[in-house]
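Researcher: Can you fold this with iron/sulfur cluster in place?
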Amino acid sequence: MAHASPLLGGAEVHLTWRDGAACRDLDTAGFFPSPCESAGERAAREEAARQVCGPCPVRVECRRHALTVREPYGVWGGLTEEERRALYTDPAG
Ligand code: SF4
């Protein structure tokens, strides 16, 4: 994606879907599992991440990326790693 940037005197800058990410300026640690987290902590962390993903303008692109490269960890595009794994193994998915 390319846009003319007023900040760069109208120069064209190339953007990727990541530039529009709602999580771009956040600490994304909350999107990824911690080795010591309990099941309850994990559920709460994933739900908090989903709240960020919900209105994210690049959610579809993010989800597509995660499914394409089979991102093994974290919440991407509002999907947890378990949900993505289920899609990989579900013949209907
Ligand atoms: S969908 Fe979620 S993980 Fe993906 S870029 Fe948006 S906020 Fe970040």
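Model: Folded with iron/sulfur cluster in place. The mean pLDDT is 87.
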